[in-house]
Amino acid sequence: MQRLLTVILACIGMVGALAIDTYLPSIPAIGREFGVGPLAVQQTLSVFLFTFAFMMLFYGTLSDSFGRRPVILIALALYTLASLGAVFAPSFGVLLACRALQGLAAGAGSVIGQAIVQDRFSHDQAHAQRIMSHIMMVFGLAPAIAPVLGGYLHVHFGWRSTFLFLAIFGALMILLVYRGLPESLPREQRHAFHGVAIAKNYLKVLRDPQFLLLSLSVGLAFSGLSLYIGSAANFVMDILHLPETAFAWLFIPMIGGMVVGSAWGGKAASRIAPGTMMWLGFGIMAAGSAISIGYNLLFVAAVPWAVLPLAVYTFGLAVAMPAIQVGALALFPDNRGLASSMMAFIQMMVFALMSGMMAPLLFGSALKLAWGVGGSLAVSFLCWRLSRMLAPPAEKLA
């Protein structure tokens, strides 16, 4: 049963990752078809990420009030319709609007999935951390597969076929959730949907500096990935001089490290204290970042050496992040959905800002990208250390 739950939660969490990554090889072709420049086409990613982040603020609260299943099903239906709209978009403006709707709908699975894990395993935080690691491991397959699949779909059927694939995947997720995901929040534990009460709960979360610092730490650590995802077309085709079908050179090492790190972290969670896991994860991320900077200082970027340090970085990311996420959500046991929404919102806002605004400034330079990752990691580590200073004495020893 736990394996089925892990697969379902990972699959509905993939919805957002697939919408981000599958169409990346088609970005130049979209610009050519609609006669817009690369910065304009980049907004199809930025708009998606900003609406994705915005709606994440509310999915947890909605699921706290109306239940986990109904909110996920409605969001998946909207996502499927928006994907179909993108398939038939007659203009760049319509495509941009469909991407905005996709973003609004795509975050339900990842936000509510975290709340479902807490619903079921709040009595055993080590078990919750292990389940989160397993979900990350399965979820990690999406960003690795998506741009490779998107490249082949683009070459053989055109860029619109990538959005048809997203629509079909959304429809399959509706069926999977409807048939296989039971409700995890009993009616008697739901909160009434009152605006004033909800606003007070949001303020309660926002006023907790430890929660905010942990959420920023997660977002900034993941922003190392967002720089490469936002720069993927430029990095693969202009820096590495590879074709549209070669995105695997970037995404397989990047996501492979995360999958392996998640698998190891899930097994180690029961015998290694969360604090130790966090230190270990940050140390591995720092090593990956340092290797990347050193390589790009000395050599011209080329495969496989330009991408292998990313596998080291994401291995460390997968080791540290589940423990940080579980610890942050545990601060609000009575508002898990809302806390999950707030954490996801902060993470995705950082992701959107980095991929939409910072990544274009780093186009054309592998060294600048490597420094960008190192800078994000340094600020992430600082936020985490500050959060530990604010933790109760017992938690500092964990």
UniProtKB/TrEMBL annotation:
Keywords: Cell inner membrane, Cell membrane, Membrane, Transmembrane, Transmembrane helix, Transport. Residues 5-398 form the Major facilitator superfamily (MFS) profile domain. It is a multi-pass membrane protein. It comes from the Bacteria. Its main location: membrane. One of its GO terms (molecular function) is xenobiotic transmembrane transporter activity. The keyword Glycosyltransferase does not apply. Signal peptide: none annotated. Pfam families: MFS_1 (PF07690). One of its GO terms (biological process) is xenobiotic detoxification by transmembrane export across the plasma membrane. This is Bcr/CflA family efflux transporter. It comes from Massilia atriviolacea. The lineage of its organism: Bacteria, Pseudomonadati, Pseudomonadota, Betaproteobacteria, Burkholderiales.
